[in-house]
Amino acid sequence: MSGSLTPPVQLGEPRPDPKPAAACDICQALVNERQLAEARGDKSKVVDLNIELRNHSKHEGQR
Predict the structure, then answer these.
(1) Which residue has the higher pLDDT, 62 or 26?
(2) Do residues 25 and 60 touch, judged by C-beta distance below 8 A?
(3) What is the pLDDT of residues 35-56, one digit of tens each?
(4) Do 14 and 47 touch, CB atoms closer than 8 A?
(5) Using an 8 Å Cβ cutoff, are 58 and 24 in contact?
(6) Across 5-31, average pLDDT
(7) Is 61 exposed, middle or buried (0-12, 13-18, 19+ CB in 10 A)?
(8) How many CA within 13 A on the CB side of residue 38?
(9) Closest CA to 15 of 58, 50, 59
(10) By the 8 A CB rule, do 24 and 61 touch?
(11) Do 18 and 59 meet the contact criterion of CB atoms below 8 Å apart?
(12) Tally of CB atoms within 10 A around 34
């Protein structure tokens, strides 16, 4: 073991919350659920819902 340390991890700015696709009931339900998770302080659920919104098929080209 040489005793050298690895450099610190560099993190960028967090991504903004994805916007729901216009007139999509699924997107709106995900946004509503995200708002509830934010109100509970459940950041893990917020991240999961943001991923689901970004991957939703109506979001093609809107990422």
Answers:
(1) 26
(2) no
(3) 999 999 999 999 999 999 988 8
(4) no
(5) yes
(6) 90
(7) exposed
(8) 10
(9) 50
(10) no
(11) yes
(12) 22
